[in-house]
User: Which sequence fits this backbone?
């Protein structure tokens, strides 16, 4: 079974990711009976049928798809995956922040695709809490990237107050 980093621990991944094969369409692909991250196109085409099933559901967004398409449904989704098709594509960081800050999503946001150790700390700052690393990467070593820095100056999804405000609050207490 594949493993992921979730909430700063290495755990078995019970979710599979559905990718449409050549010739499959969102309207005709078989809906799986196990926990699966579905492409946004499948969710949009078959939302009612998916919600009627008893299967835990998740949706994954490709880098060019914004989370606005899920705005009314975030509370129904156990997991939202955000695909990083290549290391240099950073649009997923913005999607995670929008999910956390604008759409108040409190479920799991999982980075999938070309996910590397160097990105994990910054992904967490944007709201990710689970990471499916590339298969050729050492997950044990990657886990250490989440503790590379002990603190940060700026406010972000994981820390809403900048360092100067946290210091003032500590001094006042």
Assistant:
């Amino acid at each position: 079974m594949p493993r992921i980093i979730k909430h700063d621990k290495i755990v078995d991944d019970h979710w599979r990711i559905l990718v449409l094969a050549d010739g499959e369409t969102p309207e005709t692909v078989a809906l799986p009976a196990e926990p699966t991250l579905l492409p946004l196109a499948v969710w949009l085409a078959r939302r009612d049928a998916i919600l009627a099933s008893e299967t835990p559901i998740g949706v994954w967004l490709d880098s060019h798809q914004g989370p606005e398409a899920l705005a009314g449904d975030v509370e129904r989704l156990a997991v939202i995956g955000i695909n990083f098709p290549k290391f240099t594509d950073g649009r997923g960081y913005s999607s995670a922040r929008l999910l956390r800050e604008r759409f108040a999503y409190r479920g799991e946001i999982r980075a999938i695709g070309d996910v590397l150790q160097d990105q994990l700390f910054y992904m967490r700052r944007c709201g990710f809490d689970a990471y499916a690393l590339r298969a050729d990467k050492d997950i044990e070593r990657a886990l250490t990237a989440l503790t590379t820095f002990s603190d940060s100056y700026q406010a972000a999804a994981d820390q809403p107050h900048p360092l100067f405000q946290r210091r003032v609050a500590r001094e006042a207490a």
Notes: The mean pLDDT is 93. Residues 40-52 form the longest helix (13 residues). The radius of gyration is 17 Å.
